[in-house]
Amino acid sequence: MDRTNSISSKETVFLHTNPQNNGIHLEMQGINRRHPQDSSITGLPSPDSGENSDGKWASRLLRECATAMSEKDSSKIHHLLWMLNELASPYGDCDQKLAFYFLQALFCKATDSGQRCYKTLISVAQKSHSFDSIRKLILKFQEVSPWTTFGHVASNGAILEALEGEKKLHIIDISNTLCTQWPTLLEALATRNDETPHLKLTVVVTTSIVESVMNEITPRMEKFARLMGVPFEFRVMSGLNFLGELTKDSLGVQEDEAIAVNCIGAFRRVDVEERRAFFQMIQSLRPKVVTVVEEEADLSSSRNDFIKCFDECLRFYTIYFDMLEQSFAPTSNERLMLERECSRSIVSVLACDDEIDHGDSERRERGNQWSDKLREAFIPVGYSDDVVDDIKALLKRYRTGWSLVLPAAGGDDLGINLTWKEEPVDRKKWSNGVIFKTRKDSKIRMVLSTRDVFRETLEEFRRVMTN
User: Which UniProt keywords apply (predicted)?
Assistant: First the structure.
């Protein structure tokens, strides 16, 4: 992206640490504080004007501000920043929250302070994160929304299907989900009709924020495996500067192991230019299956076009914040924590110009973009009816608004998608995309359904994680 320095940070805003307000507090200085009704700028709606047919004022004002920055219209930038600053709040409704977090990124963009803001947000998050807080956050999120459990159930079904009958399993988990995916898989392995296989689980930590709590996860995972009667070896790989450092040797892959690679939110953390090399590294492991879960947004091809990238980023987080608003109580601490996590990603994408450290990339891509890249090393394989039935049963546990979109008959893309409030007359609002990839020489076998044990196993895992 081209830098936009339409505002001098010395004259208009400054940032200082405030842990109670997401670590960053925005102060307006030197801006002409005209009331919106007295502004000479035309075409701007007020929040209660009803000008937008859907009643959403935040998106309109934020887009106006981003456009003004792109056009270097200093007067309009000043006015819109003031207006947004007056209306935004991290404790208000969905529009106020969107305005708050995107305003933060726009401030950083305008004042060339993205790097400083991002590092402050990371530092505050690291200090406030603990095993107990993260455990409560993840389990509560899984309870009220299928945003993460959708990918867990689909990936576990694909892994069980591909590794059926194998005696030595090695799952390489590249994610930051703190192993909440694996209780149902361990339960399924324990209830197989044949001999229970030996499972090696290698967890590759993709973000520095969760590294500190992984020591608490290890004994709990080992305890849970013992309860399930599954021979188990657990290993955590952390401290990587970036995922491109992973190698076959560092992952400890053995020739007699049946390999599965599980990637949840991992690919977007690889630098755009290094992604093909990363896929080739995974291919060198000769896995039976690679499961991919990524959020559906194109923040990669648009990274050099600020307005296009801004619109896509705003579209994605509008869906996400709406989902959180519908899923959590207004005063939920877990909801506030999830929204604060978004602030880092938004600042990273819109205000840091890809200059953040390796491994902290947030350049998401859409499912068809991932498919095109992955086809160079793998071929797609569709999900069985059993896995699809498991996912449909899972979605019935949650509030209305969620739906499963299956691949079109005869199409090239065999991935499945989760949608939130899909409307036939509007652009489809994708939440998560799952793409199932496997090597050309693999054989697909029957999958063991996890539908009947999901709730019970999750409750058992809650008890283990609490003790």
Answer: Transcription, Transcription regulation
